[in-house]
Design a protein that fits this description.
The complex is a heterodimer of chains A (274) and B (317).
Chain A: H1 8-23, E1 27-30, E2 44-48, E3 51-57, H2 65-76, E4 81-88, H3 95-104, E5 107-111, E6 117-121, H4 142-153, H5 157-181, H6 189-194, H7 197-204, H8 220-230, H9 232-237, H10 242-272
Parallel strand pairs in A: 3-4, 4-5
Antiparallel strand pairs in A: 1-2, 2-3, 5-6
Helix pairs in contact in A: 4-5, 5-7, 5-10, 7-8, 8-10
Chain B: E1 2-4, E2 7-12, E3 17-18, H1 30-43, E4 49-54, E5 57-62, H2 64-72, E6 78-83, H3 88-100, H4 107-123, H5 130-137, H6 141-150, H7 155-165, H8 176-192, H9 196-199, H10 202-215, H11 225-231, H12 243-252, H13 258-265, H14 267-287, H15 297-314
Parallel strand pairs in B: 3-5, 4-6
Antiparallel strand pairs in B: 1-2, 2-6, 4-5
Helix pairs in contact in B: 1-2, 3-4, 4-6, 5-6, 6-8, 8-10, 8-11, 10-12, 11-13, 12-13
The chains are: A alpha/beta (274), B alpha/beta (317).
């Protein structure tokens, strides 16, 4: 491929990356705009199964304003993409440069003298980044939820979502056990112990199980959300084909977004059971 | 749209502009590009690009760096001065006059463009000598001569230079200077030691020297000048018979260094010649001394030391 906008010093790196992407069946174009209103054309744009990779090839590693502009827009508008800077392995990488890339989720590709390409730091997909509502009151769960979200954003999606499922499941259990303890429901704590998550949700939202004039503490909307979130465990176990991967990954992010909110709501409901 | 004589100021999509096909490849360094990108991002393109219309598109006459940056920045429009389409010769000369005064083109692409200018000048019945080429293109005469020299190279070497020119300068192993120097030494051999090319071909000679440079056996292009000195051994009153075998060995023996060949053949003869010319000069200067004035003691001591050295040298004669 011929370059017009890419400086000569960066072209061999760009060529090696293109070769690598093509070997991975990406459809590659060079020096085209991501969108008309973004003031930057990355060196390489590559697409496969709905995933876009934008790669800026450089000889001197720099987090340039152009890349920043693209990262900003991709983050704000949740582009389903990954943004990388590609440099030769011999290039000198400053700590400041690496920190900035990590902070903004920009990946780093290194190309060795033989043209071999390796992903030194994976990029974060803005569409899959989760940022919980900062006004959520998470109390004792704050650290646990923050860690799970951090892991998710760092790319450990399955493990993080699993962790979030466990948090929400645990808080559902705490709620219904408290309901039993405080005699809001007629079901015994021993019986609740034997229930699975689904039945515990149903119990908390049951219109018939409450005693002493108490109305269900979990409304229909929360019940639905909890059941929907519970389905995230199936996402974890279910292997998707390449075409379904984008959908699955997006669902991961959606579920992960729900997690902190549900945990917060359950925590708040627990406080109401007195 | 503003009309100034036959030039029009307008704003057009940079994607509608094509590079000028006669413009030798412009080397645009990353640091330079980032600097210009920052400037354009901040204040926009202040100086319009110069283009001419070609159908529904435009061809760039001036402003390739600004044009590249405008595309990198995904600008929707850029300011342009639309000029009348130049003739092929005018277009070429415009490229030379606009660009060459600002940046150093690589010699090989420039040589190929000079060849086109030569041909067009010839077709127009105008002089196409190196001097005339220098005058119309604004390129200095020595550069024109060096560039034209490259046109004598076999095509594969011209292609090699074009390929090398695509690399960053610090990664280029073979430059035009290598061929210019090797060619010069080849011509001297043709003139003074023609029998060398009865044993090895001229192409083998060029290949051999380029390989030596590539492999680091020759580490400075100026070293090729010593080959000319070896070939011109007769100027030193040295033995002419020693030059040809050394020159042939230089071609055949990949590890044989030029400085070794020089030492093996003509170095002492050149030292003698140099000493001879210095003796003549010194004798002449000594004769100019005013004998009525006493010489400083340091000079007297140096002269006495010199006399001892000279006496020792003359002992065997």
């Amino acid at each position: 491929m011929e370059f017009v906008l890419t400086p000569e010093e960066a072209q061999s790196t760009a060529q090696a990356v293109i070769k690598h992407l093509e070997s991975e069946k990406y459809k590659v174009t060079v020096e085209i705009g991501v969108r008309d209103d973004i003031p930057f054309r990355p060196t390489i744009s590559a697409v496969k199964s709905g995933m876009s990779r934008y790669i800026e090839a450089q000889s001197v590693p720099q987090y340039t304003q152009g890349v920043r502009d693209l990262v900003h827009r991709a983050g704000v508008e949740k582009f389903y993409c990954e943004i990388y800077i590609a440099v030769a392995m011999s290039a000198s990488l400053s700590g400041h440069f690496l920190n900035e890339l990590s902070r903004d989720g920009v990946g780093l590709i290194l190309v060795d003298s033989q043209g071999l390409v390796s992903i030194h730091r994976p990029a974060m997909n803005p569409a899959l980044q989760v940022s919980p509502d900062p006004t959520l009151k998470l109390g004792r769960l704050k650290t646990q939820v923050r860690e799970a979200v951090k892991r998710f954003n760092a790319g450990e999606r399955k493990a993080a979502l699993q962790e979030m499922c466990e948090i929400v499941e645990g808080e559902t259990g705490r709620l219904v056990k408290k309901l039993a303890k405080k005699a809001w429901v007629s079901t015994s704590e021993a019986a609740i112990e034997k229930m699975d998550w689904s039945r515990r949700i149903d119990l908390a939202a049951s219109t018939t199980g409450y005693t002493g004039g108490h109305s269900p503490i979990v409304d229909d909307k929360l019940k639905q959300d909890l059941h929907s979130f519970r389905g995230a465990r199936n996402l974890i176990d279910h292997a998707a084909n390449a075409a379904g991967e984008k959908k699955r990954q997006t669902q991961f992010a959606e579920r992960m977004c729900m997690g902190p909110r549900l945990a917060g709501e359950l925590l708040s409901l627990q406080a109401k059971v007195v | 749209m503003v009309q100034i004589t036959n030039t029009t100021l307008d704003h057009i999509d940079p994607d509608l502009i094509d590079k000028n096909p006669v413009n030798p490849r412009l080397i645009f360094r990353e640091a330079e590009m980032n600097q210009l990108l920052d400037s354009i991002r901040e204040v926009g393109i202040q100086v319009p690009l110069a283009v001419y219309a070609a159908g529904k598109r435009y061809v760039l006459l001036d402003g390739e760096r600004r044009w590249r940056c405008s595309k990198k920045l995904n600008l929707k429009t850029v300011p342009v001065l639309i000029q009348p389409e130049p003739s092929p010769l005018e277009n070429l000369l415009t490229m030379f006059n606009i660009h060459n005064v600002r940046t150093d083109w690589d010699l090989m692409p420039m040589a190929l463009k000079l060849k086109d200018v030569q041909q067009l000048l010839g077709e127009a019945g105008q002089s196409a000598t190196p001097k005339a080429l220098s005058a119309v293109t604004g390129v200095s005469l020595p550069t024109v001569r060096r560039a034209l020299e490259l046109l004598d190279l076999p095509k594969r070497y011209q292609n090699l230079l074009l390929e090398e020119g695509k690399k960053p300068r610090d990664q280029q192993k073979i430059t035009a200077d290598v061929f210019v120097e090797v060619n010069k030494s080849k011509r001297v051999i043709e003139q003074y030691q023609p029998e060398v090319f009865e044993s090895v071909s001229e192409e083998q000679f060029v290949d051999g020297m380029v390989d030596k440079y590539r492999e680091g056996v020759v580490n400075n292009v100026v070293r090729f000048r010593d080959i000319s000195k070896i070939a011109r051994v007769e100027r030193t009153e040295g033995d002419p018979a020693i030059a040809a075998p050394a020159l042939i060995r230089l071609v055949r023996d990949k590890s044989y260094k030029i400085e070794t060949a020089y030492e093996d053949t003509v170095q002492s003869a050149y030292v003698v010649r140099d000493v001879g010319s210095r003796i003549t000069a010194l004798a002449s200067r000594l004769a100019e001394l005013d004998r009525s004035q006493p010489l400083p003691q340091a000079v007297v001591d140096d002269l006495r030391g010199l006399r001892v050295t000279i006496d020792e040298l003359l002992e065997d004669y």
